[in-house]
Amino acid sequence: MNENQIENHELILTRVFDAPRELVFRVWTDPAHFGNWWGPKGFSLNIAKMDVRPGGKFLGSQKSPEGHELWGKFVYQEVIAPEKLVFVQSFSDEGGNTVRAPFDPNWPLEIINILTLTEENGKTSLTLRGGPYNATQEERNAFEGMRPMVQQGFDGTFEQLDDYLSSQK
């Protein structure tokens, strides 16, 4: 994966967790952990498949408190335990076929995410870089327009991750 293929609309998020890097990596890659914290607050995650290796896939559905269900998938590009994960994220149907986001017909079909983990003094620094991948100008514009909401969504997800990591000590 050539990281230079990321387009200039990337979002960069950094967070420090009071947990060792191996544990943080494990909760990103082990379905027994991942389903306990990933996604928006109040949503549940059903994991249909999680094969974390280059070319492997994650397929799952999130259910809102009101019962709305959204399917999504990751296709893993690079997996270097315990320091790096690169995956392309898309909305999908139950079969894992890529579909348009239900909230915006111009939302990028693919979002690339590059997760890097570094550890110092038992704390893990997580950096997530991501943005439209193989996107049209309309898709890049849609991503740019929703950047604050994307960042807010990840902030909430990272809060859940922080709480979950605290419960694993």
Automatic annotation (TrEMBL):
Q: Where is the Activator of Hsp90 ATPase homologue 1/2-like C-terminal domain?
A: 18-165
Q: Which SUPFAM superfamilies match?
A: Bet v1-like
Q: Origin, by domain of life?
A: Bacteria
Tell me which Gene3D superfamilies the record gives. 3.30.530.20
Identify the stretch annotated as signal peptide in this record.
none
Q: Record's family?
A: Belongs to the AHA1 family.
Q: What is this protein called?
A: Polyketide cyclase
| Organism field | Paenibacillus ihbetae
